[in-house]
Amino acid sequence: MFAQIKLVVCDLDNTLYDWVTFFSKAFYAMVETVVPILDVPKDQILDELQDVHKRYGDSEPPFALLEIPSVKNRYPDKSPKQLQDLLDPAFHSFNSARKKYLLAYPGVENGLTEIKMAGTKIVAHTEATVVNAEYRLRKLNLIDYFSCIYAVQDKGPGHPNPQQLKQSLRTHKLQILSLHHRKPDTQILLKICADAGVTPSSALYIGDSIPRDIGMAHAAGVHSAWAKYGTSFDKEDWDRLVRITHWTDEDVRRADHARKMYGATVPEVVLEERFDEILNFYDFIAP
Fold this sequence. Notes:
2 domains; seven-stranded parallel sheet; 46% helix
């Protein structure tokens, strides 16, 4: 007999879509375009962007490019909005690549549709920032499947046109996570269950990371499904992201600790190729 699931908690990056591929290709498309505009070496721009990422503790603040020294030195008297206009070709390159590569994995829409039709609550849990998480779910037409989105407060330089950002963030579903509570902190998952009024034993967590997602779920007493398909991506795309990562020594230590604690966790279910394989393993019901 299948376990009955009243709440699905779903990771986003590399669980619903291939974040590694789309962000790597979009980011480097932006960099390649801005190199001739600024007339500085590519590695210098990458170094400066990494410094901004580390300052904010985030590898994807949307307008980090506006804060790098090469931009400020070339355009010392320009406002953020003016800089955005001057560097528009670079941002256009980012957006074009994102449009091409930001795609839902096979079975995502079908799986979410079937789960929601069963009356099961679905919430998103991500360490992406609010603005990025919501944008991606809206772009993929997935946001209406989720009753709530647990995401991290934005930490970047801010939108150069605040009114435009205000218009784009329209959801009432957001729950802001503290920067001090990161995966695999079981307290986050237990809070999500409590907020939904569902016991951990009736909840299911779906994610692509064994230590951070599956290990956290097991420690919290929550059912778990590993999105194995989300671990398949081009090593070059991954290496290019590592080149500009925001990770500090403390981040590395935290990741090592998670691997030591939960790296050997065996997932309850493995989703090999498609998200909707999950429908074969559980009974989804209303709370």
